[in-house]
Specification:
The protein is α/β, with parallel strands linked by helices and 400 residues long. It has one domain: Rossmann fold (3-Layer(aba) Sandwich), CATH 3.40.50. It is built from 18 helices and five strands. Helix 9 runs antiparallel to helix 11 and helix 11 packs parallel to helix 17. The chain has a five-stranded parallel sheet, with helices on both faces. It binds 2-acetamido-2-deoxy-beta-D-glucopyranose. The site of 2-acetamido-2-deoxy-beta-D-glucopyranose has 5 residues, from loops.
Length: 400
């Protein structure tokens, strides 16, 4: 026998409390959801900033093969090849804006540099990006496997960049490799952008080794070199040396801005990596770099890194941009025996400042150059490079 009864005040209070609790919970939950929902808020953005022939394809692959990374190699190649005219300085804002859009996974920015109805295969070095060879971009390679570029090239072409964009959104890290920045100032708006969490890895290499490697790839670099020197037509006879001088100057500028006197929004977001340290002890160096950007090492990657740095191949002139399995440390010393001493002297002259700053000893004679047990790479003190970015949970809060 159910009879209607007026609820007691105690029951009313209880009900009210419950309603209040529920309202509070829903609004709190909603806010959490909102905070988490734009993927850009949780993403880490890494700019691998380097120069030609400095091992950036290798370090790029170290990111590209990571299962949490969406990687593109040199998207700004398109800016330089399509716009060309104004030279490096005039193009840097277009480069910067393209990089910003790609970090946000907005690949429509590529339309400006592509023919109508283009395929993903028209993106520069697209098949070197493991993410473009894995779901959802392509069914070929499971995300946690090492991808094989030639297979990817055969099987993963598609129309447009919709799937690439979808893929980009599905990763925690977007990593872009660029050799087309010569300063950091143009990146300040990206560093201040609360929806980006940008880390800059500045990869440098002994300029004498760079020169040696450039000599073997002159043809492949001739157009870029003209843009670096901001001139048209034929390279002047001392063109290579002048390009090296520009590159060395840019290393000084970037390192001074990033490490010696960084503005607040850059503090803790810049890390110098020397190629020589990378090949001397690849696993340790790469673990440190992963740590800096919040990536975990995996067993698969460890094995692959060992293989790729302990091979026997020499690396050929035919494909100047290919990374082959070879003994990385031997390769890094090749200039000691093959670069003429006269050239070594010229480079040391134009790059002295950068070499001193970055810890590369000058040689005083051909004998010193060829004496391979003489270590010309000064050990850096580790504490200079251990700044950490505040933990990811601080969301959009910037360091400093
Ligand atoms: C573009 O990709 C499709 C596969 O989705 C292929 O059938 C077509 O031939 C490609 N077009 C070009 C121009 O490569």
């Amino acid at each position: 026998m159910l009879r209607y009864r007026v609820p007691t005040p105690a029951v009313v209070t209880l009900l009210l409390l419950q309603v209040i609790a529920m309202v509070l919970f829903v609004s709190w939950y909603g806010r959490i959801g909102q905070q988490d929902s734009p993927p850009s808020q949780r993403k880490v953005h890494v700019l691998l900033l380097s120069s030609w022939r400095s091992g950036s394809s290798f370090l790029g692959q170290v990111f590209s093969q990571h299962p949490s990374v969406f990687y593109l190699m040199e998207p700004a190649w398109h800016v330089w090849t399509v716009l060309r005219r104004p030279g490096a300085r005039g193009l840097r804002m277009a480069v910067r804006d393209l990089v910003r859009s790609v970090f946000h996974c907005d690949l429509s920015v590529m339309d400006a540099y592509m023919p109508p109805n283009y395929n993903v295969s028209q993106v520069f070095m697209w098949s070197h990006s493991r993410a473009l060879c894995s779901p959802p971009a392509c069914p070929l390679t499971p995300r946690d496997q090492i991808s094989e570029e030639p297979k990817c090239k055969l099987h993963c072409d598609t129309m447009g960049l919709q799937r690439a964009e979808e893929a980009c959104h599905s990763y925690s890290h977007v990593v872009l490799k660029e050799v087309r920045f010569f300063e950091l100032e143009s990146l300040y708006p990206l560093l201040r952008d609360p929806s980006l969490d940008l880390r800059i890895i500045h990869l440098v290499r002994d300029p004498r080794a760079v020169m040696n490697s450039r000599d073997q790839a002159i043809k492949a670099l001739v157009q870029d070199s003209a843009l670096v020197l901001e001139q048209e037509g034929n390279m002047p006879p001392d063109g290579q040396l002048r390009v090296m001088q520009e590159i060395c100057r840019s290393h000084v500028r970037i390192h001074e801005t990033g490490n010696l006197k960084p503005p607040d929004f850059l503090r803790g977001r810049y890390r110098l990596v020397r190629y020589e340290d990378l090949v001397r002890d690849p696993l340790t160096a790469i673990k440190n770099i992963y740590d800096f950007v919040g990536l975990e090492m995996t067993e698969n990657l460890e094995m692959w890194i060992y293989r790729i740095t302990h091979g026997t191949g020499k690396g050929t002139r035919k494909d100047a941009f290919k990374i082959t399995s070879r003994n990385a440390e031997d390769v890094s010393l090749a200039w000691r025996t093959s670069l003429p001493y006269t050239k070594v002297k010229q480079i040391q002259e134009v790059c002295k400042g950068a070499m001193t700053l970055l810890g590369y000893h000058l040689v005083e004679s051909e004998t010193e150059q060829k004496q391979l047990d003489l270590d010309l790479t000064a050990r850096r003190q580790h504490h200079q490079f251990t700044w950490k970015v505040p933990s990811k949970s601080t969301g959009s809060a910037k360091a400093g």
